[in-house]
Design brief:
The chain is of the alpha+beta class. Helix content is 59%, strand content 14%. Helix 2 (9-26) packs antiparallel against helix 3.
């Protein structure tokens, strides 16, 4: 309906063709019939739901909507607090390597926010490095470079899905980075440090088998974006703290090795000085003995 109203009938027909082909492959005969009826304009109102509103005032509707909004906000906040609690406890158990922290963090993140895949890119000494990518094909270097250049020039997050009006505005970015026509929703979050691009996080979900199913949930909505950004920054801070700690341990180990080497050198020097003293004492005795006999 959206494309038809916008006058883009070709796009509408293309989407209907894909939907029908998908349903035929899956054997969804009823849905194939629905698509055909829609095309023939014989069932244009099949998706309209009539709700009886007799006796309900606008104030009641408004109050109920506000109550639902408050309830939804409470549920979302409680869900986020539970996520951070579980994440922090899990990270504490993997404080020995950054790889374990990253993998554990994103496994929990995907579970709580219904994401399919995550990509984590970080600049290390000016070179973008893929720190995490659980997609089946893996992201190529040229796609990483494209994404880095994009967010060096565009310093804002991108959050969209197929149900959003701005999806086609960002289609070039999505296609050049993810290269999939089954992307349902995606969020790109760039993180900057001292005005320079530090990291990019990409979280996305794919279309489900049932193309009109309610299970096609967005990765997140705009209200969840601050939660995502806070998590990403906390993850970076956790990684930095661990890397600093490991670097201190490495330096201490080097200092300990250096102290051992110095101690060994000191012991060798003491042994050499003692040998020298013993040698001189012995030589002095050997020299004095015949001289005393002569005298």
């Amino acid at each position: 309906n959206f494309y038809i109203r916008m006058g883009e009938n070709d796009k509408a027909e293309n989407i209907l063709d894909k939907c029908k082909q998908f349903c035929e492959q899956k054997g969804y005969a009823f849905k194939v019939g629905m698509i055909d009826k829609y095309r023939n304009k014989t069932e244009t109102n099949s998706m309209v739901i009539n709700l009886p509103l007799q006796g309900i005032t606008l104030n009641q509707i408004e109050n109920n909507a506000k109550a639902l909004a408050v309830k939804y906000s409470y549920i979302r906040q409680r869900h986020s607090m539970e996520f951070f609690s579980v994440w922090q406890k899990s990270v504490e158990g993997y404080a020995d390597t950054t790889e374990k922290i990253i993998v554990t963090s994103f496994e929990i993140f995907k579970k709580y926010f219904s994401a399919d895949y995550v990509i984590f890119i970080r600049n290390e000494n000016g070179v973008p490095v893929v720190k995490y990518d659980d997609s089946s094909t893996g992201i190529r270097k040229d796609r990483v470079d494209y994404m880095v250049k994009y967010f060096e020039a565009n310093r804002s997050e991108v959050i969209t899905s197929r149900t959003e009006m701005n999806y086609y505005e960002h289609r070039a970015l999505i296609n050049n980075v993810l290269c999939s026509d089954r992307i349902n929703s995606v969020i790109f979050v760039p993180i900057y440090n001292n005005e320079k691009l530090d990291s990019v996080f990409v979280t996305y979900s794919l279309l489900k088998d049932s193309w009109n199913s309610l299970s096609n949930k967005m990765v997140c909505d705009k209200d969840e974006l601050p939660i995502f950004m806070f998590f990403y920054r906390e993850l970076l801070a956790t990684i930095d703290r661990l890397e600093d700690k490991l670097e201190i341990v490495k330096i201490n180990n080097k200092l300990q090795d250096a102290n051992v080497s110095l101690s060994q050198l000191a012991e060798r020097a003491d042994a050499a000085n003692q040998a020298k003293t013993d040698f001189l004492a012995k030589m002095s005795h050997e020299i004095r003995t015949p001289i005393n006999a002569v005298i």
